[in-house]
Amino acid sequence: MSQKKVDQYKEYKKNKDKILKQEKMKIKLQYALMGLIALVLCVWLVFSAVTSVERAKKAEAEANAPVATEVDMNGYADYVGGLQTSFSE
Fold it and tell me: In whole angstroms, what is the distance from residue 36 CA to residue 31 CA?
């Protein structure tokens, strides 16, 4: 082994606890970040599903709502009145 590698190894051994602690902290931070991203995605998915279901229910309620229309019955009344006078003659 060259002297440079020996010095690096000695430096690593000297700071091994600090280096391992930093690596563990990085791993924990990565897991926390991944968990946060997963949580945000789940919340967004649930929110989207709930709003789409509510929108569908609202559209269905509007489609099934009774519709009031006006009908001109004057022609029918004239026809029926004309029939009654025809038969009475």
Answer: 9
